[in-house]
Each structure stands twice: as structure tokens, then as C-alpha cells.
Design brief:
Shape of chain B: globular
Number of domains of chain A: 1
CATH topology of chain A: Rossmann fold
Structural class of chain B: alpha/beta
Order of helices and strands of chain A: EEHEHEHEHHEEEHHEHEHHE
CATH class of the largest domain in chain B: Alpha Beta
CATH superfamily of chain A: Thiamin diphosphate (ThDP)-binding fold, Pyr/PP domains
Largest sheet of chain A: 7 strands, mixed
Number of domains of chain B: 2
Radius of gyration of chain B: 20 Å
CATH superfamily of the largest domain in chain B: Thiamin diphosphate (ThDP)-binding fold, Pyr/PP domains
Number of helices of chain B: 12
Number of strands of chain B: 15
Order of helices and strands of chain B: EHEHEHEHEHEHEHEEHEEHEEHEHEH
CATH topology of the largest domain in chain B: Rossmann fold
Largest sheet of chain B: 7 strands, mixed
CATH architecture of the largest domain in chain B: 3-Layer(aba) Sandwich
Distance between the termini of chain A: 55 Å
Strand content of chain B: 15-25%
Radius of gyration of chain A: 19 Å
CATH class of chain A: Alpha Beta
Strand content of chain A: 15-25%
Helix content of chain A: 25-40%
Oligomer: heterodimer
Chain lengths: 266, 355
């Protein structure tokens, strides 16, 4: 195929005029594959921002990803990197073992809310407290996505899920956990921030934060944590646009965006 | 180069791990194995290694999983209650075909149990322990020297077969002091760890360490592959010790600390003119079936002795010739239940006279 010819998704050649400049491409760290995520799911956007950070620091070839249990388990299907699949909630411990044995590698985990904030609370808190030189991408969509929309530790009060059919009752089920703030209390944490990808402005801000998180690891500054608020239209029973709007109208007021700990500022 | 030392069994494990090239240890304190993390917390950092006292047994086994996935030799150790917690991680390691060494210094159970010697975790160790249907390599040392030798072997076998390996001892073997000849690791030819997750350089394939198989037939193919590997392991790696079995009309069979006591009892029986031998499995998985098959061709009378109400005896019964008789004598684990040589001699005498 001559240069200047690219294939569309359907595989038909698309001839580009030499004068046209390509301004938007797939990050090198992502594979050229179709997504299995549902329409309107935010995993794809978050994957892309993580891949862009890898490209930016040219660390793809030395990055080890740790996949968790849930929709995020297919990390290795999208990222063009070596990946270890961790048991449910254990990704920070797995990442600890990987990083300690290969301290010249960049190690990150990618975990959902059930994984990180319920079954894996012990692992996340202690990896953070040890100041493990890893980056954690925590995707909070207020539900267990893969298992079919059960109540998560981050489910909003009153939110109906398949295991809270009357809505989350704080008297019995407790309150949604704010992980970015919780981890910010730990001395071992170098960076903790919450982002969202529900608007272009928030995407740009999320990109900046994710880059900072990876930069801290590249610089060996310790544990960095990104909580990314995400939509799960399928399990919320919403259309993609409505789900995207819910992130702004319901989630952000309870889970405010921002930087909760930054050792550069201490 | 070999050195004669006088050390505890647990220390021998830690020394052997270092000699075997293990530089990564992840553990959690529990009696009667805490000498192992204590020793390695002191000795690994000066060697450039890493010691982590994990937040939990679950944390420790998953750190082992993560380190092992990058291709290094790594170890964890615990005792019954902690090993129970590690089972999730061991299952994932087995499912991910990851090597790694787990040391279990058995104590009495169930529950919190007690800290006295036990062999009641035989089933847990040899049947896989966790979910999903898998086996791990299980080695049963009966002396401080074997704690050293078998720990080294555990690393080699685990690397060769890509199956987690467990050193299964008890508090007697772990806590007692004996002479040890510390020797360099054997020069075993090991396969390259081309599957390890180390970062994907240009031109290298993507390595993924995983246990999720969703495609049609994938999971089934994995199981058949592992099944064949377990059979290969049984053929090539079964290990056992025989003492005076050639002319024996009664063969006592026991592993670990119980086998030591049985050995003394057998000497007493020989002195009394009884033709009694000992068959001591060293590998509990693979169980040395071939030794039982061979011996039961001539000897039809077996006595299994365990520090439990009977677990290994099931494997003995499955392994001997159909016309052989297998009897059992056991003491459940707990303070004061370790049998004396005299006690076992009486049991041997009783069975011998009936044979």
C-alpha cells in the first residue's frame, strides 16, 4: 500500500490529500481493535488518556499493567503492553510484587470501584501507605459493571441497583466512599486526584492529572492515585447522553473533582 | 564448597531460598514459621533483594504472584490459618501457570487450633487447596537438611513445570535444630522464562499472565494441558525414601516428622526380629504411587501413620496393589499428641503379629 493511504474501519482505502494534516490519531500504546465496552461507557476515554500519558513519557515498552476483575480485566486487549491479571481487589499487591522485582519498570493498576473500594480496600490502603512507586487508575462508576450492576461501595445514597432495589439506604448500607480523599490522608501518597471525562473541559483536566500521576512514577516520587468518575449507561439503565449528564449532576457534587494530595505542594 | 552448620529447620529454608537465587520474599508473621521472615528481613536487603511484611497473607501471596510474573524467583511462607488465606492467590498462580514457592509450617487446626505439630493440612496441600481444580507440587522434608535441599528443589521444579511448589513441614521440623550441610544450588538446566511480564520491547510479543479463559474450548484445553503436566510430574519427579523394605512383611508409611518417629520404632522392631520397613514419601504431590505399586507386589501389609485422623492413608490405599491391606494409626494434632517411638512400636508389633 502506498503511503498516504489509510484504511477505514470497514477496510476500504481512504485516500488522503497530501495537504491534509492528520491531527487526531490513536495513541501508540493502544492497539487498533474494536471496543467491547458498551455505548457511552467511559472506560474507552480513560484508556485513551492513560495511553496518551504512556506515549508522552515514551514508557510503553517498559510499562507493566495490572488488570483487575471486572470490565477492566480486558486491559491487555486494548493496551499494547505486558499485563498481569490480578485476583479481585489484589491489583495493588500484585503491582507491589512486580515493581519491587523490576524497579526500572513503570507499573500501574487499573481497577473498578467494587475491586478497589470493597474487596480490595486492604491492598490499596497498604500499597498507598507503603508509598509503593506505582500508579493506580481507579474507575468509579458507582456500580459493579461486569456482574450486572450490583451495589458498589461508591453507589450513591438512594441509587437503585440490582442488589439495592429500594435504593441504597445509608442506615444499612453505609455511605459512598470517597477514595481520593481517604488515600490523601496517607503519608505514603505522592499524588491523589479525582477527575471526570464527561465534558471536553474535564477530559483535558483528566489528561493533565493522569500525566502528572505517571510523571510522578517516572520521577520515582512514590504512589500516585487517580480516581476517574465514569458512566455505566447499561447498568444505570440510562441512554449514553443521560448517563454522561448524571456524572455531572449527581456524582461530581458528592465526589468533587480536584487534587487532594500533591507532595510537590507540601 | 559446603559448610557444616547447626541451625533450625526454618532457618534452613530461608538459607536455601537465598542460595537458590530467591531475592524476593513476602510474608506475614505467624507461629511457628516466623523465623523465616525474620531471617530474610535481615539477609535479603544487603543482597539487593526485597523483603515486605505484607498487610495480610492475601497481600503476601499476591505480591508473590506479581514478582513471579516478572520472572524472578520469589517466596512466601506461613502456617495453616495463613495458608488458608493464601489459597485464592495460589489458585490464581496455578491458573496463570506461575512458578513460586510457598512454605507451610503446619500447626494444629482447624481454626486457630494450636501451635503444635500437625499433618492435618495434607489434603489442603495435595488437593490444590483453592478453587477450580488444580494441583501444586508438594515436598515434605523430614529433617533440617531436607528443609534446605527440598526448598532448593521446590524452586527448580516450580520453574521447570510452571506450577507453584509448596514445602510442607510442621512445627517440629521447623523449630528443631540439627546439623546442616549447606551446599551450593544444583546446576539444573532451567527453561527460559520467555512468558514473563517485563515490559514489551519493540519486536517482542505481548506477554500476558492471566487465568481468565472465556473462548470456546480454551478453559478445557488449559485443564488437559495441566493434566498432562501433572502426569509428567508424577513419572519424572516422584521422590521417596525406602528403609529395609526388601525383606519386609510389614511396611510402615509416613511423611515428615512422623516418619522420623516411625524410623526409630522400626529399628526397635528390627531389633526384636520383625521384618519391618519404611516407605517415606518425599513428594506428596506427585504422590510416589510407583513405589507403593512396586513394594505391594511382595509385601501385602501396610501401616500408615499420621498426625491426623487419616489423610495420606487415602493416597496409600489408592496406590497399593488391590490385595494389599492398609491399616492406619494416627493421633489428631494438638498439644501432647506427638506419638513416642514406643507407642508406634506397639502399633507395629500389633500389625506385624496379625500379618
Amino acid at each position: 500500500m502506498d503511503s498516504g493511504t489509510v484504511l477505514t474501519r470497514a477496510g476500504t482505502p481512504l485516500r488522503m490529500r497530501n495537504s491534509m494534516k492528520q491531527v487526531f490519531t490513536r495513541p501508540e500504546s493502544l492497539k487498533d481493535v474494536q471496543t467491547h465496552f458498551c455505548p457511552g461507557c467511559h472506560h474507552g476515554s480513560i484508556h485513551r488518556l492513560v495511553a496518551e500519558a504512556m506515549d508522552e513519557f515514551d514508557i510503553r515498552s517498559k510499562t507493566i499493567g495490572v488488570a483487575s476483575v471486572g470490565c477492566s480485566v480486558f486491559l491487555y486487549g486494548y493496551f499494547d503492553i505486558d499485563v498481569i491479571e490480578a485476583p479481585h481487589g489484589r491489583a495493588p499487591a500484585v503491582a507491589t510484587g512486580a515493581k519491587r522485582s523490576r524497579d526500572d519498570r513503570i507499573v500501574f493498576t487499573y481497577q473498578g470501584d467494587g475491586d478497589l473500594a470493597a474487596i480490595g480496600t486492604s491492598e490499596i490502603i497498604h500499597a498507598a501507605n507503603r508509598g509503593e512507586d506505582i500508579t493506580v487508575i481507579f474507575v468509579n462508576n458507582t456500580t459493579y459493571g461486569m456482574t450486572g450492576g450490583q451495589m458498589a461501595p461508591t453507589t450513591m445514597v438512594g441509587q437503585k441497583t440490582s442488589t439495592s432495589p429500594y435504593g441504597r439506604n445509608q442506615a444499612k448500607d453505609g455511605y459512598p466512599i470517597r477514595m481520593a480523599e481517604l488515600l490523601a490522608q496517607l503519608e505514603g501518597v505522592a499524588f491523589s486526584a479525582r477527575v471526570a471525562v464527561n465534558s471536553p473541559k474535564n477530559v483535558m483536566q483528566a489528561k493533565k492529572m493522569i500525566k502528572t500521576a505517571f510523571r510522578y512514577q517516572v520521577e520515582g516520587r512514590g504512589f500516585s492515585f487517580i480516581e476517574a468518575l465514569a458512566a455505566c449507561p447499561t447498568n444505570w439503565g440510562m441512554k449514553p447522553l443521560a448517563a454522561n449528564e448524571r456524572v455531572g449532576s449527581e456524582m461530581i457534587p458528592y465526589f468533587p473533582l480536584g487534587v487532594y494530595r500533591n507532595t510537590a505542594n507540601l | 564448597m559446603s559448610e557444616k552448620l547447626f541451625v533450625k529447620g526454618n532457618e534452613a529454608v530461608a538459607m536455601a531460598a537465598i542460595e537458590a537465587g530467591c531475592r524476593y520474599y513476602f510474608g506475614y508473621p505467624i507461629t511457628p514459621q516466623s523465623d523465616i521472615p525474620e531471617y530474610l528481613s535481615r539477609e535479603l536487603p544487603p543482597l539487593g533483594g526485597e523483603f515486605i511484611q505484607a498487610e495480610s497473607e492475601i497481600g503476601a501471596i499476591n505480591m508473590l504472584l506479581g514478582a513471579s510474573a516478572t520472572g524472578v524467583r520469589a517466596m512466601t511462607s506461613s502456617s495453616g490459618p495463613g495458608i488458608s488465606l493464601k489459597q485464592e492467590g495460589i489458585s490464581y498462580m496455578a491458573g496463570s501457570e506461575l512458578p513460586g514457592v510457598i512454605v507451610d509450617i503446619m500447626r494444629a487446626g482447624p481454626g486457630l487450633g494450636g501451635i503444635d505439630a500437625s499433618q492435618a493440612d495434607y489434603f489442603q496441600a495435595t488437593r490444590g487447596g483453592g478453587h477450580g481444580g488444580y494441583r501444586i507440587i508438594v515436598l515434605a522434608p523430614a529433617s533440617v537438611q531436607e528443609m534446605y535441599d527440598l526448598t532448593m528443589l521446590a524452586f527448580d521444579l516450580s520453574d521447570i513445570y510452571r506450577i507453584p511448589a509448596m514445602v510442607l513441614a510442621d512445627s517440629v521440623i521447623g523449630q528443631m535444630k540439627e546439623s546442616l550441610t549447606a551446599h551450593p544450588r544444583p546446576q539444573t538446566v532451567l527453561p527460559a522464562k520467555d512468558w514473563a511480564v517485563r515490559g514489551r520491547e519493540a519486536g517482542e510479543p505481548q506477554n500476558v499472565v492471566k487465568s481468565l479463559y472465556l473462548g470456546d474450548g480454551e478453559m478445557e484445553a488449559f485443564h488437559w494441558k495441566m493434566h498432562a503436566r501433572y502426569q509428567e510430574l508424577a513419572e519424572k519427579e516422584s521422590r521417596w525414601e525406602e528403609v529395609q523394605t526388601e525383606d519386609a512383611t510389614l511396611v510402615v508409611t509416613a511423611f515428615g516428622s512422623t516418619a522420623r518417629i516411625a524410623k526409630t520404632a522400626i529399628s526397635m522392631a528390627r531389633e526384636a526380629g520383625m521384618k519391618v520397613g519404611l516407605l517415606r514419601p518425599i513428594t506428596l504431590f506427585p504422590f510416589p504411587k510407583q513405589a507403593y505399586e512396586a513394594i505391594s507386589g511382595n509385601c501385602k501389609n501396610f501401616l500408615t501413620i499420621e498426625l491426623s485422623t487419616g489423610q495420606m492413608v487415602e493416597d496409600v490405599r489408592l496406590s497399593v496393589a488391590r490385595d494389599a491391606e492398609v491399616s492406619f494409626y494416627g493421633r489428631p494434632p494438638g498439644a501432647g499428641s506427638l506419638p513416642t517411638p514406643e507407642e508406634l512400636f506397639e502399633q507395629i508389633k500389633k500389625r506385624y503379629l496379625n500379618s
